[in-house]
Amino acid sequence: MSRSVLQKSQQGWRWGAGLAGGALLALIIAIWLPQQAEALPGSDHYPSCRFGVTVGGDITLYDVASLNVGWYLDWHTTAAPPQPGGAEYVQLVHLEQVGQGFAFYPPTSTLYTIMDANPGAIWLIGNEQDRRIYQDDLPPEIYARAYHHLYNLIKVRDPSAQIAIGGVVQPTPLRFQYLDLVWDTYMREYGTLMPVDVWNVHSFILREISSEHPLLHQPGYENWGADIPRGAQFDSVMEGILYRYSHQDDLAIFRQRIIEFRRWMAARGQRDKPLIVTEYGVLFPEDYYDESGRLFSAERVGTFMRGTFDFFRTYTDPTIGYPPDGNRLVQRWAWFSVDANPWYWGGTLFDPATHGLRPLGEDFRAYTSALSPTVDLVAARAFAEPPVILYEGVPVTATLKALVSNAGDVATTGPITVTFYDGLLGESGSSLIGSVQVITTGLHGCADYEIVETQWPGLIVGGHRFYIVVENADDSRSDNNTAEGMVLVANSRVFLPLVVKNSVR
Q1: Residues 230, 235, 239, 245, CA torsion sign
Q2: Where are the domains of the chain?
Q3: pLDDT greater than 70 at residue 8
Q4: What DSSP designation does 406 have?
Q5: Helix axes 108-117, 140-157, angle to 10 degrees
Q6: I need a surface site. Which of 55, 309, 436, 468 has the fewest CB within 10 A?
Q7: What single string gives the DSSP state of each residue in 235-279?
């Protein structure tokens, strides 16, 4: 049998049902993996908050600390997750449609136990809810209601929890339409913007084609990948973007789609929220060929992986990037996967039978080991709250605030001081405002932030400029430790008419 015929035959059963991934993969791998552990490494590695991985089985079987990963996802929730090398565990609540409503698991009582044991954790609400049949599979309107319920359930119990949407399969126009419907439903039904602490997306490069497409399985209409979202608005949609095999590792496509997701966020006033990519990679196994006859070899996938790392780490945009993170587009990312069976999937870092590093895992380790762990404190914003105070004949007191973030990839270890000064930065005669503020709890990397404040008394009518200086012994940079702000003291106010525009659809 020729190689091309063999590959097509394998595709019939290896890919015919689509890319299940996620929870299904986790179940399969958990069954396959031998129950024995290897020793973890010593203290010569560091957990970078940016680099993450997904794992379907027991993560303690693998030397993931050697990869310097700072977090991981296994598509579940747990009260006492392993933290190899200090890696953070991300919780995920699964959803399913029940009639015109929804169910979620684990149940509320279990979630409360997990929340109590893991205050401040990141919670993903659903997983690929925009995919039919596989994963959580919900129409956008029902997902909006499920998100509303779980957001409030978790926040009431743990106000410090960070709530993220479930990762949509990929950032394409079809998925943006799905998110628009979720966003609009939330506003319509609850009268407020959808409260999202962390935005989340997957970024595999997959075909969007309905299983009911009239040309299904004809050349150019093969059905693998992302399918079409659930919902009445999509029932008549037969196809979205029909990516080819060779697009799986196309860096130009990969970069542009992440940029488009950030633009989507910014257009909805969400630029000041972090973005994480909780699954991505190359899903075709290493013995597969693309339409040009090129293998998805470990070398080829490694080149793609390193290219994505470079993009995530260094690409910034002052109009759509996240300001507390130096305007980077993405704060954290997770490669798929630690332990997927390499006969069925691409991108596997460790051998699931021997637990040793595969060549791609060695590439991952070499990349992160060549980086220096850094703390990068940023004076992200200096502002007054409220920004305008009405003068009524006597001097007023303003509340000044400073948003201080750590745009590095490891946590601070010493105290952080924040000093407020009056006047302009570098202006002679500037004096201290209030007392020096000290952040003693430290800041994790990846744009973890704290807001501190002080009082500025004795202000009269006019604009009053001030600036802040942030200092810490761990800081690797000094060019981003200052910021300027202003408070306005006004002696009159103007009432403007309220104009409301009703949109007609």
Answers
A1: positive
A2: 3-369, 377-490
A3: no
A4: E
A5: 50
A6: 436
A7: TT--BS----GGGGG-HHHHHHHHHHHHHHHHHTT-TTS-EEEEE
Q: How far is the C-alpha of 136 from the C-alpha of 147, rounded, in Å?
A: 13
Alpha carbon 315 to its chain's center? 15
Backbone angles phi, psi at 475, to 5 degrees: -65, 135
Are 48 and 365 a contacting pair, CB within 8 Å? Answer: no
The residue type at 192: T
pTM comes to 0.89
Cβ 225 vs Cβ 149: under 8 Å: no
Nearest C-alpha neighbor of 337 from the set 78, 83, 133, 64: 64
**Residue 200 is encoded by which pair of tokens?**
């989340």
Architecture of domain 3-369: Alpha-Beta Barrel (3.20)
State the Cα–Cα distance between residues 45 and 356, nearest whole angstrom: 17
Query: Do 377-490 and 3-369 have the same topology in CATH?
Result: no
Cβ(87)–Cβ(64) below 8 Å: yes
**How far apart are alpha carbons 132 and 215 in whole angstroms?**
19
Q: How confident is the model at residue 101 (pLDDT cuts 50, 70, 90)?
A: very high
H or E element: which one contains 439? strand 432-439
74 vs 126: CA distance, rounded Å: 13
CA distance 356 to 236: 47
Residue 422 phi, psi dihedral angles, 5° rounding: -85, 165
pLDDT in tens, 403-412: 999 999 999 9
Contacts of 162 (CB under 8 A, 6+ apart): 120, 121, 122, 123, 197, 198
**pLDDT single digits (tens) 209-221:** 999 999 998 998 9
pLDDT per residue over 42-87, tens digit each?
Answer: 457 899 999 999 999 999 999 999 999 999 999 999 999 999 999 9
* pLDDT score of 40 more than 70: no
**Mean model confidence pLDDT for the chain:** 90
Q: Is the pLDDT of residue 423 over 60?
A: yes
Residue of 377, 379, 376 whose CA lies nearest to 483: 379
In terms of DSSP H, where are the helices of 103-244? Answer: 108-117, 140-157, 173-190
The answer to whether 1 and 7 are in contact (CB under 8 A) is no
User: How many whole angstroms separate alpha carbon 75 and alpha carbon 92?
Assistant: 6
- 88-98/122-125 β-pairing: parallel
**Cis status, amide bond into 337, omega within 30 of 0:** yes
**How many angstroms separate the CA atoms of 335 and 138, rounded?**
25
Domain 377-490 -> CATH class:
mainly beta
- Digit-coded pLDDT (tens) for 411-420: 999 999 999 9
